[in-house]
Structure prediction request, 304 residues.
Amino acid sequence: MHLVSRSSIIALVVRDSIRILQGQGYKATKPRKLVLEVLEETEKPLSPYDIKGILRARGKYLNHVTIYRILDLLCSLNLAHKMLSSGGFVKCSLDAIEGCHRFMVCQHCGAIREFADKELCQEENDFAQDFGFHTEYHLSEFSGLCSQCYRK
Amino acid sequence: MHLVSRSSIIALVVRDSIRILQGQGYKATKPRKLVLEVLEETEKPLSPYDIKGILRARGKYLNHVTIYRILDLLCSLNLAHKMLSSGGFVKCSLDAIEGCHRFMVCQHCGAIREFADKELCQEENDFAQDFGFHTEYHLSEFSGLCSQCYRK
DNA sequence: TAGCTAATTGCAATATTATTGCATTTAGTT
DNA sequence: AACTAAATGCAATAATATTGCAATTAGCTA
Ligand SMILES: [Mn+2]
Ligand SMILES: [Mn+2]
Ligand SMILES: [Zn+2]
Ligand SMILES: [Zn+2]
Prediction:
């Protein structure tokens, strides 16, 4: 049986990403490799400044602007994605169902529609339960096109 | 048939919220009423600075700190809630399934676990479809307790 | 109704996060 | 090795968020 070290796995996945970047005509730069490495080896979501801090602790210095731009690029190529959302505050009506917070956000006109569905909530709760996770509440955002914008 | 103006409806809902505030020992202050009014009458999610701007346009001036504090209070009483999330960036593996971006975030230890489920995605897509909404992708976050923290 | 007081707000200072234009550097090519 | 478009770093600025404290106010009491 072959044993593969964690670091070599990371190297492999980073290499895949790099290959995709190059395939699209982007350069395989040092900063891009560094960011990819950190993303690959870290378990949880990282902010640009998280990444900056992790690298700094290793004596590698990247400008935060660079990190923002790299992350934007990775997201645009679906190699990474952002967590929701604008971080804005949202109103909710008083009679809101527990766990109901779903938003459909139109990419074109920006319209936001909120809805609730108990069954969907229950399924999601059950699903999380299978992982041993006890859901207190959940929020979700659907990004796409509203009926009006879709027709155009 | 009775016709009720939109403004009187807003007044009613705001009054409900105010009543709940007072029931918990919080004062019914002018700033709180103003923020509630804006939240009630506006269709889409608003950031603290959105609210500040709307009020300013009406000649009402609230300090942004006040708005933050009011929104925090409303959220703590479940009269409002925030959209996700830290706004941070998230890594995603290359083989990620379209529309798979789900995170379970432990309120206690902060652990974040990402998972994917095609069926759940499909159901959500279908659900949105019923509203005429065409989903491009969706992200969601489950907030609760991981198995370890739940046991304690 | 006026005065009292705890709660709330406003202010000022600071911190954090994000964006832009431009000079400098670098990866990939010749 | 030289060239050049692409990418990065830098500096300035903007936007968002938090904290401690002084001033104000809502609700209570006399
Ligand atoms: Mn809701
Ligand atoms: Mn994902
Ligand atoms: Zn639309
Ligand atoms: Zn936990």
About this structure: The beta strands of chain A are 80-82, 89-91, 101-106, 112-115, 134-145.
